[in-house]
Amino acid sequence: MTASARDYAAVYSGFQAPISKIYNCGAKCAPFNGGVPVCCDTGHAIPIVEKTEYALLKKRTKMWTPFVPRTPDQKAEIADLKGSDSCAVECRGAAHCERDNRSLACRSFPFFPYFDAEKNLVGLAHYWNFEGLCWVIHNLTIVEKPFIDQFIAQHEFIFKKDDNWRVTYVEHSAAMRGVYSRRGDKFPIIMRDGTYRWVLPKSGGKMVPATKTELKSLRAGFTLGQE
Q1: What's the distance, CA 8 to chain centroid?
Q2: Does the residue 179 lie in any domain?
Q3: What is the pLDDT of residue 104?
Q4: Number of folded domains that form the chain
Q5: Residues forming beta bridges with residue 208, ordered by sequence position
Q6: If you compute the radius of gyration of the chain from its CA atoms, what whole number of angstroms results?
């Protein structure tokens, strides 16, 4: 069963909180990416939505259109969606953003729901392929509790409607553990309660507490620019 357009409308209503009320993360990375926030640049991030979500967006706004791939890599990525319930879209750009009509992917970026090795949804993990590009990934302590709460609540709502999406993120979480284990490195999780944990490599997903001081070391990895 797939979440309906009405379900996504409820998600949009319940997921309004910004990552931070203090920092404009797009303004942090845009000067180092031709004036465009990385998350709004389809050269870096192609928005993927459920077809039912896109049906809702088309009723609400003219901001979104089907994504037309421009490179071989983009064509390959879009080809993987053939026959699925998802599709690739693009908006008119950051300068024309209608915040009420952002997709769930836009509202969530750069995070995805992280499931531990026991398949429990425990918090937020980042999309690791955006390390060095997304300022937020290297400044996790700016993420505020209302965003965390709404992120978790609305994803849990969607998972009740569409178990395939839950399975996708269970698998993506396991893939992240594999990536970091091969690196021999730990990665951070923002937990439901706003605290932080490191997931240790080659440990079966074992988590240990992380401090804000430790997380500041992540800032050195932001290659587009510094805070």
Answers
A1: 16
A2: yes
A3: 97
A4: 1
A5: 198
A6: 17
155: buried, middle or exposed (CB in 10 Å: 19+, 13-18, 0-12)?
A: buried
Which long-range contacts does 31-36 make (Cβ < 8 Å, 24+ apart)? 31/225, 32/224, 32/225, 33/133, 33/224, 36/93, 36/94
Domain assignment of residue 175, yes or no: yes
Q: Which residue positions in the chain have pLDDT lower than 70?
A: 224-227
**pLDDT the model gives residue 83:** 86
The whole domain housing 45 covers 5-220
Spatial neighbors of 46 by CB under 8 A, at least 6 apart, are: 67, 74, 77, 78, 88, 90
Express each pLDDT in 76-113 by its tens digit: 988 989 889 999 999 999 999 999 999 999 999 999 99
In a domain, 225, yes or no: no
Give domain status of residue 226, yes or no: no
Angle between helices 145-161 and 5-14 in degrees, nearest 10 = 170
pTM: 0.94
